[in-house]
Amino acid sequence: MSVLPSQAVSITFRTKNIDGELADATGTITAVLYRNGAATMVAVTVASITGTGRYSASWTNAGYAASDQLEVEVTATIGGTAYTSKIWSDSVVAVVVAPDNASITAIKAKTDNLPASPAAVGSSMVASNMRGTDGANTTTPPTTGAIATAVWDYAISSATTAGSIGKTLLDRITGLLQTKAQADTDQTAILAAISSVSAGGGGDATLAKQGEILAALGNVPSSGSGARRVVISVVDYSAAAVVGAKVTIQTAAGATIAGRFGNTIAGGLVIFNLDDGDYKGRVTTSSGYDAHTAQAFTVDEDDEPVTLTIMATSTSTPDDPSLCRLTVGFVSVHGLPIVGATVTPSLSIPPELVPSGYALNESDVETTDSSGGFTADFIQGITVQLNVDHEGKSYRVQIKIPALQTYAVKLTV
What we know:
By secondary structure, this protein is an alpha+beta fold. It folds into four domains: about 10-90, Immunoglobulin-like; about 100-175, no CATH class; about 200-310, Immunoglobulin-like (Sandwich); about 325-410, Immunoglobulins (Immunoglobulin-like). It is built from six helices and 22 strands.
């Protein structure tokens, strides 16, 4: 939705722990309202509402200008760790002013004595009735303004007659005066309906169809003047759409292309107009995700949508400082999570060659979760092999465990 310059705004948001479960924050949650990228002095009130991990944030806009961009950023402590994240963004729209009906009524009252027909007007204009010094009457002819008002008065009085100018104007004004709340409700419902559209041909076909509909409605920002429209979807490794992420287009060599960037909206979508060729897409978010390595994609006659996947930042660490908590997100070539795959870790080198003190942390065979995720603790500095089995197919990947307590990586298999 969009907000008005001086509107009182209230939104809701949720807090979750590292396991993705709703959890209450400890201490005070702080919130800051940003206007066009700069923090404001507006007080944002955060309150707990019914249910675990559910909160509201409310404030009153300070007379902002139309097209100003507003954002709310909150800081909360969950499980002993402080998090900062942007939870809301929107733009300011101008106030729609209703007609001044009181003034229209007053003008009408002053013009009720105008001639009722052209014949009456004609008779008052003959020489014998003209105002002058020859003994004629002293009736003052109507002014241009009075005549114009009479025309509007007639349009108003004919507003119930089908096909009349008055009825046409009334219908159009009624549409323009639709309440802002109803307009917001309609827009939300439309975007929600579009996000559930399925093209019946799999993930790529569905993304393409959603992007096509949103672009036709003018709801997806687009950039560039190339020959082909490329729909880009930004998701995390659980395939959930990421809204508000900045996507920058680069050359195949990694050089940023001037003017080729945009922010994702509902459905995690953004559109670029690009010519055929090889490109890279890089995603930037405010917080909550690891730094994104630009992903390569090709634009050609296949006209396939592009999915850019980003990894959530790992926040928990093992108790033993010599261990590294490895989080791996397994996704398909279409960016969808691989759920239910069996992952068996093993050393990738003969045991006799393993340096003293370095050994694979004992771990049972794991199964990837609903997000395609696998997490286990390993000794820092060793190289492990992950043996992945899914739907009759086997994959082998080697990972060098860094000297860090947490490490996250996305693997496409």
